[in-house]
Amino acid sequence: CTPEMVLELYNFGQLQYSSGNYGGSADILLHFSILSTDPELTLSAMWGKLASEILFGNWEVAYGDLMKLRETIDKTHFKSPTEQLQQRVWLLHWSLFVFFNHPQGRDGIVETFMLQHYVSTIQNACPWILRYLAAAVVTNRRKRGIMQDLVKIIEQVAYMYRDPVTEFIEALYVDFDFDRAAQKLDECEAVLENDFFLTHAVDDFIENARFFFAEVYCRIHKRIDMAGLTSRLSMKQEDGEKWMVKLIRESRMDAKVDFKENTVIMNPSYNPVYQQVIERTRGLVFRSQVLSGAMEKRSNSANKDEQKQKPKQQRPARQRNDTPVAAQ
Hints:
Mean pLDDT: 83
Largest sheet: 3 strands, antiparallel
Helix content: over 70%
Radius of gyration: 28 Å
Oligomer: single chain
Structural class: mainly alpha
Shape: elongated
């Protein structure tokens, strides 16, 4: 198999993609990626295969291709940092099609977008992506531990980008302005309904946003008027009372409901010192691994450059003298 034949395979894959045969294009570009030794064309073929799987609606395979492409972009040494930044910006935008159609997409978007180099990409090149990261964190209670990191990112980018989703989180966790947070929550519903990627997640977002709202509200107040809380959350009083009781039961809050006065009485609880230490150091292991991987990658790159620049060693003098002796 000659390089010219492999290149023809790439061109044929492009032709299949342009003709709308996305299934055939994905198969051909996959074989080209295996056979090709050209890193630039291989990366281009990976983008083409991902686009084919997205257009074909094959979300399971597209999810795997997206993870491989992310790994390739992170490992490839581009001509300039700007080129790598552009690749990551494309990946962030294209990944929205996959993450919001895959069953595990909400976990994937949080894990990918919260990586340090992708956080930097969002902050420097595409801050509007924060809407989708914020929506994924809010709708995924299993990732609630990342909320504080998300709040810091939103604060850092607030001077460049704001929308009702980010402003809701900012009002709730930074300003503790519950009236403004309730107002932004109402605006979020209209924004999400008109968003291509989030229109199907409106109900999940509102339900989980109310949960976060009530959780923060209950931490600050000792006695809570259920009528006032439910009105802030745009719920009917009867439905709000049932929802509040369910919330206390599911979240295991140390609280007591007084139905006569229609209030919730919170019993203050304080985390022991060791528990606070555990919570503060929970993310150190992951961050240390990321930092260690980045340092190892940079060290390997520096060693390769040093080997390339190192001049060839001269032959020993004994070998140079062998030729005249043999000639004699």
